[in-house]
Design a protein that fits this description.
The chain has about 50 residues and is mostly helical. The chain is built from three helices and two strands, in the order H-E-E-H-H. It starts with a helix and ends in an 8-residue tail after the last helix.
Length: about 50
């Protein structure tokens, strides 16, 4: 999941999009540092 998040955040860097109120580059660093680990460990949920 972390890899997918970093890939999407990379696209956001190219587009100049902020994520959770910070630059996409800063968000990527936060993901690498483990700030988002608890959110990323949750299983994917499909809406029905």
């Amino acid at each position: 999941m972390k890899g997918a998040v970093l890939t999407i955040a990379g696209t956001c860097v190219s587009m100049g999009v902020n994520i959770e109120g910070v630059s996409a580059k800063e968000f990527q660093q936060q993901v690498r540092e483990g700030k988002w680990d608890s959110e990323l460990e949750e299983p994917l949920r499909e809406e029905k």
